[in-house]
Design brief:
This protein is α/β, with parallel strands linked by helices and about 625 residues long. About 50% of the residues lie in helices and about 20% in strands. Strand 11 and strand 12 form a beta hairpin.
Length: about 625
């Protein structure tokens, strides 16, 4: 029960007790007063009538007439004349009349008044006695009217107290709500501060919570600074800010180890022609500035996932394959020749570009050796600035783009979609959830996500596929009450407001018990670019009890401001980092990531685990769970 309800109950009980005590005390005091007055009246009237009758002739008829005249005044309930032996000579009694008051009230406050008795003398001898009882109904009615007036006054007073209480409680409610909001934020790992209220007790509480928030925020800032320092020291090139060669090799290894490549990629190698001569021409510092400008320009191109510096003059670039490798290569050459000229008068930038689709190769070694061979070929032909190998199609059973468009529409319309499940295992051996990977039926054959997402992206069908996957996951969760699923949300769906509405509308129609077993995952890079949108969407998902996680985490985490306000539940660390966990430098970086996540009470999952022999060592580093080809 809320504190406000308890306060209201306390106010109501106090007012009722005050009324009850006032009612009974007032009613009984008034009753006793009236009864005392009636008793005195009985005695006085009986004495006066006895004195009058004593002075009269003792003619029974005359006495009866006198008593009758007295009784007819209406102030008496009973008058009786008795002889010395107690025999009734004359008696007048009033027939009981209905009293204008409730029976329960009459019974509760019944007047028990003794009659007034006086002796009648005949000269020096006793003649008899007179007994007289006054009418008490008037007193009962008067007492009822007094009680009604008291009740009316109480109701008015209670309404006034309620009004005043509402005003006072509203003044108390505001700081209470602030404290509750602050406490809920801490429970949701959101470290906010609030103004201290004027109420002394609440002021102390809020001050303590603010101090706790400040300490945790300071810890987070220190962890992020330490993480950023480790990243720059061990994973980034000092001059350009691009990733180093070790990270590039690890990323390629993770890509080819992953059987469920979400989307096709193509890679390019850029080589600066005669870097030594450029150093002599521009000077070392200006050359470093120019190299950083090259990296920054490439990073700004749409679809760039990774830029790495392999050595002094070679750079490695990974693109999400939005278009053919040849088209991307031409765009990249045009960009470099526009933004990265050494001098405005130069016709082209001194950079060679070669590219290859990763569908055309099968390993890290083959990729790098093929690119090196292509660069040698380009360098041997002075008029050639770029070269591509070819664009391989992951699924070539369809003839052209038109056939792909028809196939995608048909599969979505017919719901020819299923999910391949891959477990995420916690350190105690239990399953945290299963990652649901897309499968689509085309020409009676089940095709993986990597074979179709390139075409789906080209025709803006990514959001349709994501929504279909969420529907499929919900259906599976309804059928299996023990199953837990995680669905990846792509960048195009994440930035599509109508898609948000479709997903939320779908989940609102689902029982909360089902939503609790559903997780939605987003790439870390998306949060960096669209943090406000992410927080808004996640808040809506959390209100429906859906878990939220970040995947491919590691290097952009430092760029997220106020990470505690994201509302996420877990992090999945990129395989490109996890695969190098045996390196001392990488182990320190992973330890920093894990410590930061645990400070926020987030689970940390290692992606891309390839061998069961790595499980114990990764868990020893502090990971809460593992996923990848090595997890069965």
């Amino acid at each position: 029960m809320s504190l406000i309800k308890q306060l209201w109950i306390a106010i109501i009980v106090i007012v009722l007790l005050a009324f009850g005590s006032s009612f009974f005390i007032s009613a009984y005091q008034t009753k006793n007063y009236l009864a005392e007055q009636l008793q005195v009246k009985n005695i006085d009237n009986a004495t006066g009538m006895a004195l009058t009758l004593s002075q009269m002739d003792k003619d029974l008829t005359t006495m009866e007439l006198m008593l009758s005249a007295q009784f007819d005044t209406g102030y008496y309930r009973r008058i009786a004349l008795k002889d010395i032996g107690g025999n009734v000579l004359v008696e007048f009694a009033l027939t009981p009349q209905k009293v204008d008051a409730p029976n329960w009230f009459v019974a509760l406050l019944n007047f028990d008044i003794k009659p007034g008795i006086a002796q009648i003398q005949d000269s020096w001898q006793r003649f008899g006695t007179i007994e007289l009882e006054s009418q008490s109904d008037y007193s009962v009615v008067a007492l009822w009217q007094i009680t009604m007036d008291l009740a009316t006054g109480f109701v008015i007073l209670a309404m006034f107290c309620g009004l005043v209480g509402s005003i006072l409680l509203n003044r108390v409610r505001k700081p209470l709500n602030q404290v509750v909001t602050h406490a809920e934020a801490l429970g949701n790992r959101q470290f906010i501060t609030t103004d201290e209220p004027a109420t002394f007790e609440l002021k102390r509480l809020v001050a303590a919570m603010n101090r706790l928030t400040g300490r945790v925020r300071y810890m987070l800032e220190q962890e992020q600074k330490q993480l950023d320092r480790l990243q720059r020291q061990y994973e980034l090139d000092n001059v350009t800010g691009a990733f180093n060669r070790e990270y590039c090799a690890s990323w390629l290894e993770g890509y080819f180890n992953n059987k469920e490549r979400s989307e096709p990629c193509c890679v390019f190698m850029l080589r600066v022609i005669d870097l030594q001569a450029i150093n002599l021409r521009l000077g070392r510092s200006d050359t470093d500035v120019w190299l950083k400008r090259v990296v920054d320009a490439v990073r700004q191109h749409q679809g760039v996932r990774l830029v790495s510096r392999l050595n002094g003059s070679d750079f490695f670039v990974v693109f999400d394959q939005l278009e053919s490798t040849a088209e991307l290569c031409q765009q990249l050459v045009t960009l470099l020749n526009t933004a990265c000229l050494l001098e405005p008068a130069d016709p082209t930038a001194p950079i060679l570009v070669v590219g290859i689709s990763l569908d055309a190769v099968s390993s890290r070694q083959q990729t790098l050796s093929q690119l090196d061979a292509m660069l040698v070929d380009v360098e041997s032909k002075p008029l050639l600035q770029s070269k591509i190998l070819y664009q391989a199609q992951g699924y070539d059973a369809l003839g052209d783009a038109t056939d792909w468009l028809k196939a995608l529409k048909q599969a979505i319309h017919s719901n020819d979609i299923m999910s391949q499940l891959y477990p995420v295992q916690l350190r105690n051996g239990t399953i945290m959830h299963h990652e649901a990977m897309l499968r689509m039926q085309i020409n009676a054959e089940w095709v993986s996500a990597g074979q179709i997402l390139g075409w789906a992206r080209r025709y803006q069908f990514i959001s349709h596929l994501d929504i279909a996957m969420v529907k499929r996951a919900v259906s599976q969760l309804k059928d299996d009450s023990e199953l837990k699923l995680a669905v990846n949300i792509s960048d195009l769906t994440f930035t599509n407001a109508p898609a948000h509405y479709e997903i939320l509308k779908l989940l609102q129609s689902v029982p909360q018990a089902v939503c609790k077993r559903l997780s939605m995952e987003f790439d870390e890079a998306l949060v960096v670019k669209h943090q406000i949108l992410f927080i808004s969407f996640v808040s809506a998902l959390k209100a429906l009890s859906v878990e939220v996680g970040l995947q491919k985490c590691g290097f952009a985490i430092n760029e997220i401001k106020d990470i505690e306000q994201l509302g996420i539940d877990y992090l999945k660390i990129d395989a490109a980092i996890v695969l190098r966990y045996k390196s001392t430098d990488t182990a320190q970086l992973l330890a920093g990531l894990i410590k930061l996540a645990h400070t926020l009470s987030l689970k940390v999952i290692a992606e891309g685990v390839t061998s069961s022999t790595d499980i114990d060592e990764l868990l020893a580093l502090g990971f809460d769970g593992l996923t990848g080809p090595g997890i069965s």
